[in-house]
Design a protein that fits this description.
Elements: E1 2-9, E2 15-23, H1 46-60, E3 64-68, H2 78-81, E4 89-93, H3 101-112, E5 116-119, H4 131-134, E6 139-143, H5 149-159, E7 164-168, H6 173-182, E8 187-188, H7 206-218, H8 225-232, H9 236-249, H10 258-265, H11 267-282, H12 288-304, H13 314-322, H14 326-330, H15 334-340, H16 345-353, H17 357-369, H18 373-382, H19 387-404
Parallel strand pairs: 2-3, 3-4, 4-5, 5-6, 6-7, 7-8
Antiparallel strand pairs: 1-2
């Protein structure tokens, strides 16, 4: 099994839902499976296996989860496959589900069971023939480059007033900004939120300069605990977070200073905590999905280390994942951002040059995030990596993130 999550944003860059895409088999080893589609099999919705095993809290922070279904799986016993509340699941249909009596009847049944419904890959010419199905839909996913949203908004408001319009394939920040300015769409899906910074436009926020200083202290080859403690002391939020952690560790000991707290944690744990805590702070003025993205990347990369025979490099791979969007965090190009922080040579090579041993893992993770199962399968075959171990590494990263940043 393979699975990944793709976010859907609103006009304020807040994540409102996630689409979960799963793959049961290694496509590269089973090329006769349905054209590399993101689902396979007839009677089982593999995405629902993921949702049920992990729960919507772990997967999406309690937000709705879009689950693809096809012309076969729509007739499966969905209620038996899914153990989470039906109103948290959006069954994502496509044009393989025809506006025919058997499908219309099934769509009505699923709606009556409490599931939300969405339609994708539906050309404009099919809007009218699909009227009975669209009347039951809560969302429709539209390719923004092929539709006049103002005309579409008028049409859907008049004919389907309860349906939400989702723009897909939003690949750049400029596209997102233009679409949100024009209005019309309720949700947006695409890679725009994590596109590399091509040109620096701002000075680094003074508070972020302090965080960069702290990162450089702890990522030095043999940093001094007192130096790290002194930099932590400049930021009240970090001080509070550090004391909360240490007080849980030292049940019967009185913490007398920040230096004392740092010493209690020790060099290894302090370094790990600072890298994750500071990354959260650097992302504070960015879409929340950036924090989630880099945190899960970091843990996923660390978990994959053993599979790539790099177990000893796990901590550095964790750093690579954390810093994989540092250009976005600092509003600098990747080269300028990496010139500001201390990172291992192989991490810099992976992030800046897209080369080296570490880049193999970073590239794999990015393909995995995009649900590019054909390429993911090919890479697993090339490196003799077990698919189930990859899946467990990803789920472990999701659980770690859930526990690191509890849902509030």
């Amino acid at each position: 099994m393979l699975a990944t999550l793709i976010p859907l944003f609103d006009g304020n860059m807040s994540v409102c839902a996630y689409s979960v895409f799963a793959r049961k088999e290694n496509h590269f080893l089973n090329p006769n499976l349905e054209g590399g589609a993101r689902y396979d099999g007839a009677g089982t919705v593999h995405e629902l296996e993921v949702v049920s095993s992990m729960g919507v809290s772990t997967l999406s922070g309690g937000k709705e989860v879009f689950v693809p279904i096809n012309q076969f799986s729509i007739f499966s016993e969905i209620s038996l496959q899914c153990t989470v509340p039906a109103n948290k699941v959006v069954l994502l249909m496509d044009n393989t589900i025809k506006p025919e009596e058997q499908f219309i009847k099934r769509v009505k049944e699923l709606k009556s069971q409490g599931y939300k419904l969405a339609m994708r890959k539906l050309p404009i010419i099919q809007f009218e023939p699909y009227r009975e199905i669209l009347n039951k839909c809560d969302y429709i996913l539209l390719n923004h480059s092929k539709i006049d949203i103002q005309k579409a908004k008028i049409y859907f408001t008049a004919v389907y007033p309860n349906i939400k319009l989702c723009a897909v394939n939003v690949d750049t920040q400029d596209e997102y900004d233009e679409l949100t300015k024009d209005g019309g769409y309720d949700l947006y899906e695409g890679s725009f939120f994590r596109m590399p910074v091509k040109e620096s436009e701002t000075e680094v926020n003074p508070l972020k300069v302090n965080y960069i200083e702290l990162l450089n202290v702890v990522n030095d080859a043999d940093f001094d605990l007192t130096d790290a403690a002194d930099v932590i002391g400049k930021d009240p939020a970090l001080v509070i977070s550090l004391l909360e952690i240490v007080n849980r560790m030292a049940l019967n000991s009185e913490i007398t200073s920040i230096r004392h707290a740092a010493a209690m944690m020790g060099q290894k744990e302090l370094k790990r905590w600072i890298n994750t805590a500071v990354t959260k702070e650097l992302c504070a003025d960015k879409p929340s999905e950036i924090t989630r993205l880099v945190m899960i990347r970091a843990k996923f990369a660390e978990n994959l280390a053993e599979l790539y025979e790099m177990a000893m490099q796990g901590p550095e791979l964790f750093i690579m994942g954390l810093f994989s969007a540092i250009d976005i965090m600092l509003d600098k190009t990747m080269e300028e951002a990496l010139d500001m922080v201390v990172v291992p040579k192989l991490v810099r090579q992976a992030l800046l040059e897209n080369s080296g041993d570490y880049y193999k893992i970073l590239n794999f993770i990015k393909r995995y995030e995009d649900a590019d199962w054909i390429e993911v399968s090919r890479l697993m075959v090339l490196d003799n990596i077990d698919m189930d171990k990859v899946y467990e590494a990803y789920l472990n990263a999701l659980r770690w993130y859930r526990d690191l940043i509890p849902v509030t």
